[in-house]
Amino acid sequence: MDGSAHPSEIGDKGKATALKDAKALTPMMAQYLEIREQAGDALLFYRMGDFYELFFDDAVKAAAALDITLTKRGQHQGEAIPMCGVPHHSHENYLARLIRAGFKVAICEQTEDPAEAKKRGSKSVVRREIVRFVTPGTLTEDSLLEARSHNFLAALHAPRTGAGALAWADVSSGELCVASVTAETLGSQLAALAPKELLTPEAPGGDWVAALDAMGEETCVTPQARTFFDVANAEERLCDLYKVQALDAFGTFARSEIAALGALAAYIELTQVGRMPALKPPRHPARGAAMAIDAVTRTSLELTRTQRGDRDGSLLAAIDRTVSGAGARLLSDWMAGPLTDIDAIRRRQQAIAWLVEARPLRGDIRERLAATPDIARALSRLALGRGGPRDLAALRDGLTAARELCVLLHGAAEGAPLDAPMAEMLQEAMCDLEAQSGGGFADLLRLLNKALAADLPLLARDGGFIATGFDPGLDETRGLRDNARRIIAGLEDQYRQKAGIKALKIKHNNVLGYFVEAPASYAGTLMGAPHCDLFIHRQTLANAVRFTTVELSDLDSRIVRSRDTALAREMALYRDLCEQTLARAGDIAACADGLALIDVCAGLAQLAEAQDYVRPQVDDSFAFEIIGGRHPVVEQTVARAGEGAFIPNDCRLTREDDPSLWLVTGPNMAGKSTFLRQNALIAILAQMGSFVPAKEAHIGVIDRVFSRVGASDDLARGRSTFMVEMVETAAILNQAGERSLVVLDEIGRGTATYDGLSIAWAALEHLHEINKCRGLFATHYHELTALSSRLDRLANVSMQVREWKGDVVFLHEVAEGPADRSYGVSVGRLAGLPSAVVARAQEVLSLLEEGKVASSAGLATLVDDLPLFSAAVARPKPVADSPALKALADIDPDSLSPREALEALYALKELTRNGS
Ligand SMILES: Nc1ncnc2c1ncn2[C@@H]1O[C@H](COP(=O)(O)OP(=O)(O)OP(=O)(O)O)[C@@H](O)[C@H]1O
């Protein structure tokens, strides 16, 4: 604690009247309020000794969000000040919870020693400053980040007219990208990135608003004044940041892109309070624009999350075999933006294919990668001044692992285990691992190896992290300290003998430093004449008495001095090590990228081998030929559940040779949705560069994938199921082109039968005649199957089922031709509908199928003709000609003697036993 008054005590003892009335405020309250204003909409963590304290509204909000005690301290304007606090040593936990709850936090530290403040007068307040704003998009601590996901901060420049731009950065790893966007493409860009925080202009124009409204709730939107996006300022800021004269050095950027990049840089500078992370130069996303996949398609295909929001069960979880956080992040990048550039796709395929062949080598590579620290994130923390000795060690270990990987790969490249030349992409990654263009990492590694001790503290200021032998000055100071400690051990013996007290000890605490302690019963002896010159009394406790000696205090100050000197020396050495490391930031970041790339390729190779995936042929044709395709997720689920094998199915939509639209019919549960999705997923995997779950695959590059599978209510936006479905169908019919792949499942089912059928009918015709795309269309409207006679590129296929003992058995096989019927009622029985309901449904169905209800008159007849439901349930099945019943009818109970009655009963029993 700084010894000054607590801010809550300041106000006043009843004197302060207005916030702005500076005279009425104590110095500390004035300081607090000034800093509070700088914190804007963030909660202020105000450092007081070992705690971060929160006051006023901040305290109320934080206490509720963290479920911690809200107390009251002092008064302000006549009211008690609400207060809560979190301990400094565990504040990251609380911080993480607040950020997850959508808050931003300003961290205000004491930036001078309380002793310094005291020199200015006893009432002076320790200087405090905001050292950082913690926001969802600017996290760097491992404890606040998910190791396997990116943490993107994005900025949208949304001009009133024309195209805008979206820039995004991962502050924790230094990635920085920018791309042009329009209000139409913004949705799919944001869906692909899933930024944690998005900066937008304060009042974006109409079209942008709609796109922003459709954004997921995981993104925290931070509006900024329009001036924040000023192009001229942006250019200057970026040139300053990269220390270049003009941005041309990094490529050509549109004005809007520069504005978005500038806003992003300004916000990072603002939140990191002047310290910038090691941002890589800005770049446009991967060569060969990405395949467009809009937000609804991503959700319906469950690419990174299931519709329930879990990672488990998503495509990403099913194919992720990476062993490092950086690898997992890169894989999700690949999935966010599958490529359309055929060469780029082939380069990835080559690398994976090479690693598929190199099985033992792949095992070694993965083992090493698994033990490699996350160097991109360690580097970023160091650049922001938020790192520690362990981050330096992480870089040392990461770079060492990279070197070992290179040795392995070189061995393989030189032909030892493999004949094929190593894929170009892997060779490039190897150059990055060794920093070949930057002269290698040998010097830096030598330095770090020599400098760092074996056991490292988390924080540099705890000291003790520089290895002995690295710095003679430090060793000497440490020697003095250690020597003094040895002398103290000797003194203890000496004092014991002099005083004749065996139980005498020399101990240490933070208040007294070193002191002599003896049991309280010796107090008189030690304070008595023979010893009073030697032992100077310091403290008497219940059980012990404590003394110092001139010699001991001398040694104590020497130890303190040498500890301070050693720490100061270590801090200087630490700064120097950071500087030398950060001088290689670009090369280290490239090395981290190389490691991530090898991890992704090795992971996909592992997947290909383990799950029997095949390398697809991707070219610029209009082919879509999947032989023996499987659903990557359902296949694994079925195998895990021990439900037998997944049944592979072919899909041929090649435009030139085959019908390019398939109308898929078949009963519920027969596997229509699975078949539809699996083909879209195979296309996405193929264009990510991955191998695919099939026997053979040939895909002419697809520029957009659209998938609508089972629309659901979007009540939050005031849209019914049907409305959602229509909006989404409209988007497809308006946007799909001849290179698109469209997957539509049961369009029109959310409304009256005839309306739904008509809409599905018209949509199918539109896809065929206007969009001319490749597509799969699943429906329960059997009437649509007739369309194939009119539309030459439309083919009917159906999911096969067999009936066995009155039940339906799903074969999960796709066959040519339409389904014969729906089997809906049979599926209802399988699902456990009460047998009365099943029987009743069967009756209704038979009449409907006989065509007796084509009009409302027919419907009335149906209602009249069919027995009432309750009657249907209650009425027992007639058993007219049962011999037992006949025998019963013949009995005249009044004419039977008791014995005859008993015999009749036995006879009846016998008849029923015979099944009569
Ligand atoms: N090819 C297959 N091999 C093995 N099991 C499969 C296959 N396809 C689907 N299944 C299994 O059948 C279940 C139902 O599949 P799916 O949801 O695709 O049916 P559907 O025809 O779309 O049904 P609905 O019309 O009710 O939506 C899946 O969850 C899966 O377990």
UniProtKB/TrEMBL annotation:
Q: Tell me which Gene Ontology terms the entry assigns under biological process.
A: mismatch repair
Source organism's superkingdom? Bacteria
Family annotation (InterPro entries): DNA_mismatch_repair_MutS, DNA_mismatch_repair_MutS-lik_N, DNA_mismatch_repair_MutS/MSH, DNA_mismatch_repair_MutS_C, DNA_mismatch_repair_MutS_clamp, DNA_mismatch_repair_MutS_core, DNA_mismatch_repair_MutS_N, DNA_mismatch_repair_MutS_sf
SMART domains xrefs = MUTSac (SM00534), MUTSd (SM00533)
Task: Please list the GO terms describing molecular function.
Answer: ATP binding; ATP-dependent DNA damage sensor activity; damaged DNA binding; mismatched DNA binding
**Which GO CC annotations does the UniProt entry carry?**
cytosol
- Domain (DNA mismatch repair proteins mutS family) ranges: 740-756
Task: Report keywords, A-Z.
Answer: ATP-binding, DNA damage, DNA repair, DNA-binding, Nucleotide-binding
**Residues involved in ATP binding:** 666-673
What CDD domains does the record tag this protein with? ABC_MutS1 (cd03284)
What does this chain do?
This protein is involved in the repair of mismatches in DNA. It is possible that it carries out the mismatch recognition step. This protein has a weak ATPase activity.
Record's family?
Belongs to the DNA mismatch repair MutS family.
- Output this protein's name: DNA mismatch repair protein MutS
- The organism encoding this protein is Aquisalinus flavus
- What gene is this protein translated from? mutS
